[in-house]
Structure formats: structure tokens, C-alpha cells
Amino acid sequence: MIYLDNAATTPVTPAALHAAWPWLTSEFGNPSSTHELGARAKDALEDARARIADWLGCRVSEITFTSGGTEGNNLAITGLALAQPRGKHIISARTEHEAVLETLDFLERIHGFEISWLPVDLVGNIEPADLRAKLRADTTLVTLMAANNEIGTVHPIAELAQIAHEFGAAFHTDAVQAAGWLDIRVDTSQVDALTISGHKLGAPKGSGAVFIRGRLGVEPLLHGGGQEGGRRSGTENVAWAVALATAIDALPDLASESARVSGLRDGFIRAVLQDASMAIPTGHPVDRLPSIASFCFEGLSGEAILLELERRNVIVSSGSACAAGSDEPSHVLTAIGFDADTARTAVRFSFSHNTTEEDLSHAANALTEAILAVGGTGKIA
Asked: Which residues of the chain register pLDDT less than 70?
């Protein structure tokens, strides 16, 4: 099997599983307990927090463990919006992940916030000048993803955060897809909040973390014993925190690995475009994640192509796995200007740190066969 759906989830790395195992078995103490078993659990939790803080370039106290990207986005966006007295205006883009869009809808419906939407172009770009034009005296938060999970387009987060700060607004970024592929250190970008998800990094599903700058107030979503510095009540999942830190420690060198996979991605895109004349690449041609190559196949069914690829042992997706089961076209593709019918032809190939040139050569050949099988006869160049 050639697994090319890593933007949906990644396998747990052996190192992360091995590191987590003691905290699921013999070292089962509650980190809030004062006895020795609890103290060891607390030490492991704080060691994991310190390793993640070092990776992100922030203070240890600014890391909150979560259950993943959805909770992290909810905590950062809702927590900051409700805690800041500045105003009830938020700026975002309609190409954001559903975890952001639905959180903003909640704030609009229940708490009376006004949401302003930035325009995006045909490749998903956001122009800094457009953000500057939308900012107001009552803008409390800007939330824009570091890189898009469906089309891979990368946004200039450091520049956008600087503009938000000029107007006194806080800046949050969903870095779930960017983590492991781009430099997301917050001491470089100066963002105020940043979300990561463990299962996109080789840690178990249900693990994650959010960075929130210490000077900012946060209204918690969960109320109880005041764990995680009062930002997330509930007994901490020590095993998953340790697994997350271990998976991050095991990531390959950022510069060399991004260059390697970018080369594989570009070669794969060329092969697809050479063999399938109806293929339309989506996302920015240059400013994109190394790990994502996405296409629309005009006149064909994206879901049918997926099934034919799976028959050939190539696993991919038609877009965001978080919207699986929905017959609606990709909201990302319709936001950047694709009509609904074309958006339904989308197929996303997403790579891992283990993806090889041989894998992608096989996938390109399988795609050619799949297109022919679903009725693309005569459209193969």
C-alpha cells in the first residue's frame, strides 16, 4: 500500500508509541497527585511541555496541551475573543479549516461578534494589503492558517501578524498542516497563538498543543480543577503529551527534508500534468507546502478516481478528511473560484517524511489507469 493521505493523518511513529507506553501502564499516576507516582507523571508532563516550547521558541508556560487541532483552534479563538475587551470584530478567510470557520460562526451567532472575510485569489493567496484595509479600532483578533490543508498554499504569517499588531489586534494561526514542513517558531513569526495537532506529526490521535502568548488573557472552554495553568481543566493525558514531544523530536531536519519532498512533489505534479490533460493543479505553484499536490479533474468524479486508486493500492483523499461523508463541494475550492461541479472532481495527494520517488512514480501510473477506468478515455494526453 502506498499511503498518500498524510494531510488527513499519519501513522504513529515507533519512538512516540514506545515513549508513551510506560505512562499508559506502570506509570499511571495523576500528575496532580502529590505522591511519588503523581510526581513522576508531573515531571514527564512538564518535560514534554518544555521540549515543545523549545521547538516553538516560546516560554514553557505558554504551551497548553489539548486533544488536537480542533480543540486548540476553539480554545485560541474563542478564548482570546471572549477575554479581550478591545471589541467584537474578527478577521479571517473562508479558506480556513472547518474548526476555525465553525468557531467563528459560534462567536457570531451566540456572542454577537462581527466577522470580516478577506478576499482570496485563484490560488488561495491572501494579500497583506487586504488585511490592512479590514483592520479597525475594535478588531480583537485575526485568525489565518499558516498553510492550507486542501491546496497547500502558504500564507505570509509573519507579515500578516505584524500588520495586525500595528492595529493592536491579536493574531492566531492554525499551523496544523505547516508543522513539520515550515518554520513555525513563534519567536520568528511573533504570532500570539498557534495550534498544532499530534496525529499530523506521528503522534496519536487525541494529542495536540496550543501556544498562547502569556501576556494575553484566555477564557477557558473547560471549567474544573484548573489544570494547564487554568486554561484547560481536566486530568492531563501524560502519555499523549510525551508521545507528541517525542514525535516532534524525531522530525527530520527541516530545511533538507522540505527541499527533498518539494522536489518529489514538483516531479509528481509534472508527471500528472503530462499524462492527464484534464488535470487542473490547485494551490499556489511556488508558495505551497512540500507535502501537498492537489488537482481537479474536470469532467470526472473525484470520488470515483479515489476508489480506482485504492484498487491499485494508492490511498489518497478528495479534500479535507474532517468533512468526510459530506456531498458538498470543497469550501476551499469554491472560495477560490471553482464552480461546485469542478470542485467535486478534486483529489489531494499528501506526502510524509517517508514518501519516496518510487512511491510517487507508482502513484502517477496508477492515476493514469484510474482516470481511464472512470471514463477519461480520450482525455489522456
From this structure: 319-326, 376-381
Nearest CA among 379, 32, 22 for reference residue 229: 32
Q: Which domains does the chain have, with CATH numbers?
A: 2-8+253-373 (3.90.1150.10), 14-249 (3.40.640.10)
- pLDDT for 358 equals 98
- Which amino acid belongs to residue 348? R
Cα–Cα dist 371/34, whole Å? 62
* Whole-angstrom distance, CA of residue 289 vs CA of residue 154: 6
* DSSP state, residue 199: G
- At residue 85, the pLDDT reads 82
Q: In whole angstroms, what is the distance from residue 245 CA to residue 18 CA? A: 12
The per-residue pLDDT for 376 is 63
Q: Taking a C-beta distance cutoff of 8 angstroms, is the pair 202, 10 a contact?
A: yes
Active site residues: 322
Cα(23)–Cα(201) distance, rounded to whole angstroms?
20
- Residue 321: predicted pLDDT: 53
Burial level of 324, CB count in 10 A (0-12/13-18/19+)?
A: exposed
Alpha helix locations (H) across the chain?
A: 14-24, 36-56, 69-83, 98-111, 128-134, 157-166, 186-189, 238-249, 254-275, 302-311, 331-335, 340-343, 357-373
Nearest-angstrom CA–CA distance, 339 and 117:
19
> pTM of the entire structure?
0.95
One-letter identity of residue 356? T
How far from 370 is each of 92, 127, 319, CA to CA, in Å?
37, 37, 18
pLDDT at res. 378: 40
